[in-house]
DNA sequence: AGGGTTCGAGAACGTTCGTTCTTGACCGGG
DNA sequence: CCCGGTCAAGAACGAACGTTCTCGAACCCT
């Protein structure tokens, strides 16, 4: 009953996630969202309740549609070296954890609900890294060795986001070699 | 000539750095700054020109008074293991790169001047890590191996800032051991 | 066909934003 | 002594903020 919705809700949340990832929560105004999403103000408040509600939906979607699938894919195929290379390159050039990174720094400390979502995303990253690194990184490096490598991945993403150049491919491979990762284990000859 | 200033400018910038680090640039209002600094609005604009001017001064001070000295200290004394342990623990419990982290994620991409300062801070961190890691991390791990370890330090600080638990001490020592770091090279027995 | 309900369009709300202005207190040099 | 200049105090500015309201159009169900 009633008039059917004229916009794709999931697509709106996806666009909101990109805007929030790009400019942060405080840096993105409701006007920006209304313009960028092409969704009317009233509809936005009817569906999501508030700007924060839309932000939480965007972060939730970011985890479900990008972080978790990416983590799962990296956990099964490819080794540690590939994971580090893709992390430094921005995975596939997309947002690639940009919203997770932004939320972790800007909102996780002051908004408990955001903090819980960020913790969930980071835990998924830990699991993926543990699987990619295999026994070398996940076990012999200590009971929580994967968290160290996950921190490295986060740091690489942060550097890329800040616009500073990342390490060379040779460094990435040499680094992975220290953990006996698949693909580039052993020798660490700078080839470039 | 004229009435002398009644507030400590350097102390005001220091407090501003703490506020900006805690709530970010967009999340800190001029009213917050006026209240927190105890400096009048007019004086603030007379001295720093704008909110952004104060932010740049705070970031500049953060680099000069906290990041660079910390990097220098870590570069000369202590090994990689100690650096990682201190990074995970928040160095000395202070802001410890919080403003650098916040600026890197929130402002470096959209404000070139902030981006330059952030790049300077990250470069200083690279240098410090290279010295702490010694030949093992700085050379044999590749020409830019230190950047990988610096990324790990950044990731650890980000995790701490987001409020998620960091790796155990055993993991940190085992990780450092992979690079032949001073203090905990070799064995990686979980002692806790 | 018509009632009930939800939608999209946009004006409007009060608040807060960053910034500027006005006013009077204070200080050093002639 | 008093004058030029800098200071602190706070009101005030227009713009932008997040949110709410009013209104007519569009649609499903009976």
Strand content of chain A: under 5%
Oligomer: homodimer
Proportion in helices of chain A: 55-70%
Number of β-strand runs of chain A: 0
Structural class of chain A: mainly alpha
Please give the alpha-carbon distance between the first and last residues of chain A. Answer: 64 Å
Total number of helices of chain A: 9
* Biggest interface found: A-B, 53 and 52 residues
Q: Please tell me what the overall shape of chain A is.
A: elongated
| Mean pLDDT reading of chain A | 82
The succession of helices and strands of chain A, N to C, reads HHHHHHHHH
Indicate the low-confidence ranges of chain A by residue numbers.
181-192
What Rg of chain A is obtained from the alpha carbons, in whole angstroms? 19 Å
Largest sheet of chain A: none
Can you characterise this structure?
The structure is a homodimer. With about 190 residues, the first copy, chain A, is an all-alpha fold. In chain A, about 70% of the residues lie in helices and about 0% in strands. Chain A has nine helices and no strands. In chain A, helix 1 crosses helix 4 and helix 5 runs antiparallel to helix 9. The model of chain A is unreliable at about 180-190 (pLDDT under 50). Chains A and B meet through helix 6, helix 7, helix 8 and helix 9 of A and helix 6, helix 7, helix 8 and helix 9 of B. The structure holds a DNA duplex (30 and 30 nucleotides).
């Amino acid at each position: 009953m009633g008039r059917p919705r004229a916009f794709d809700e999931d697509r709106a949340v996806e666009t909101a996630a990109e805007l929030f990832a790009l400019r942060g929560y405080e840096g993105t105004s409701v006007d920006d969202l209304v313009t960028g999403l092409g969704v009317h103000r009233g509809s936005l408040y009817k569906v999501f309740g508030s700007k924060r509600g839309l932000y939480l939906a965007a972060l939730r979607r970011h985890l479900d549609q990008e972080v978790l699938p990416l983590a799962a894919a990296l956990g099964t195929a490819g080794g540690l070296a590939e994971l580090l290379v893709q992390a430094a390159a921005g995975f596939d050039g997309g947002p690639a954890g940009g919203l997770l990174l932004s939320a972790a720094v800007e909102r996780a400390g002051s908004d408990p609900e955001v903090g819980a979502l960020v913790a969930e995303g980071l835990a998924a990253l830990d699991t993926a890294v543990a699987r990619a690194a295999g026994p070398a990184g996940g076990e012999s490096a200590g009971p929580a060795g994967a968290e160290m490598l996950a921190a490295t991945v986060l740091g690489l993403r942060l550097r890329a986001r800040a616009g500073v150049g990342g390490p060379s491919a040779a460094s990435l491979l040499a680094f992975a070699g220290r953990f006996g990762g698949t693909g580039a284990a052993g020798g660490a000859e700078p080839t470039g």
